[in-house]
């Protein structure tokens, strides 16, 4: 589903309530519980410290309860005496740091964080090989998680707690990665100029009705690439290519900025509709910048394709590094 046709990316460069139900499964406490279990697994292993280390933390409440419920198995960890765990992450969200900080406060275990672009981190782990200090790899896209798996930098995560908290469709079939959170790619629209009943599908945005009204960030965006990949899977390459051409033809301006910039452009009257991830709307509405709050209040959120294939949803996820010192064994 995440195979991408490069020709279509060049084209773009020129110029569900089902989703909501799935998103609801991945609450803050669910993310905390999953990360807590994996981090606690890692903590006893204690690999060496890494650069750019940030002291981080532990997860509390329901997360700790989730870890204690791991039953029917014994886990033996090879101890090296160090109370540290190393995370290579392509995520850059404030909430992650808070989770790590809570983890450290509750356990006394230091979390060293190395941040970077996902592709660069994968290549780094491949170069480091058996000497890699990485324990966990975290990134924001299902396609990249699969790339990490096929690159041979991950090993299976075996956990009844993880399996019971994360539905099978949001886990790798071979347990090489686990989904942590999800986001839907929705259509944002001007509440002033567009009525929700005018909207229907992603495909409809490529019709003449939206000529000069569509706003979208560059095709170099991973979020747009994954959406296009899903359309290739659902509709075939030929139809997906025609859709990409239609979006380019309907652009209100040359692609620029991130998702929040598309929302701001709607409010500024530069376009009427935009492709955005759901959480950016929440960030606008909860911004400390009063002007951004106003932007969030003036745009509507529409979940497309409810009568057909459903709204496109992608995940963030975590994998256990292949050469991590973490060793997990199950006993019958």
From TrEMBL:
Pfam families: SBP_bac_6 (PF13343)
Region Disordered: start-end pairs: 50-85
Compositional bias of kind Low complexity: 56-82
Keywords: Ion transport, Iron, Iron transport, Signal, Transport
InterPro entries hit by this protein: Ferric-bd
Membership in a protein family: Belongs to the bacterial solute-binding protein 1 family.
Name assigned to this protein: Iron deficiency-induced protein A
Natural source organism: Paenibacillus cisolokensis
């Amino acid at each position: 589903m995440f195979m991408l046709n490069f020709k279509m990316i060049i084209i773009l460069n020129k110029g569900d309530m089902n989703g909501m139900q799935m998103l609801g499964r991945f609450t803050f406490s669910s993310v905390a519980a999953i990360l807590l279990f994996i981090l606690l697994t890692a903590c006893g292993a204690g690999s060496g410290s890494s650069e750019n280390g940030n002291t981080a933390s532990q997860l509390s409440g329901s997360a700790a309860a989730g870890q204690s419920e791991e039953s029917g198995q014994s886990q033996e960890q090879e101890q090296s005496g160090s109370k540290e765990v190393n995370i290579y992450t392509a995520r850059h969200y404030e909430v992650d740091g808070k989770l790590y900080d809570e983890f450290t406060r509750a356990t006394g275990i230091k979390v060293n964080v190395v941040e970077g672009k996902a592709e660069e981190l994968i290549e780094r782990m491949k170069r480091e090989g058996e000497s890699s200090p990485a324990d966990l790899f975290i990134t924001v896209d299902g396609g990249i998680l699969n790339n990490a798996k096929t690159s041979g930098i991950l090993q299976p995560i075996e956990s009844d707690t993880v399996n019971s908290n994360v539905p099978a469709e949001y886990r790798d079939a071979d347990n090489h990665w686990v989904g942590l959170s999800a986001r839907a790619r929705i259509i944002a629209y001007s509440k002033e100029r567009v009525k929700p009943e005018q909207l229907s599908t992603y495909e409809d945005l490529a019709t003449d009705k939206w000529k000069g009204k569509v706003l979208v960030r560059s095709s170099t965006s991973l979020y747009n690439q994954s959406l296009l990949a899903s359309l290739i899977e659902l509709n075939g390459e030929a139809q997906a290519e025609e859709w990409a051409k239609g979006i380019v033809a309907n652009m209100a301006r040359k692609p620029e900025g991130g998702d929040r910039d598309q929302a701001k452009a709607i409010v500024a009257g530069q376009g009427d509709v935009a492709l955005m991830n759901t959480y950016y709307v929440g960030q606008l509405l909860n911004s400390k910048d009063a002007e951004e709050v106003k932007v969030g209040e003036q745009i509507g959120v529409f979940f497309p394709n409810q009568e057909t294939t459903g709204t496109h949803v992608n995940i963030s996820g975590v994998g256990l590094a292949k050469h991590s010192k973490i060793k997990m064994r199950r006993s019958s």
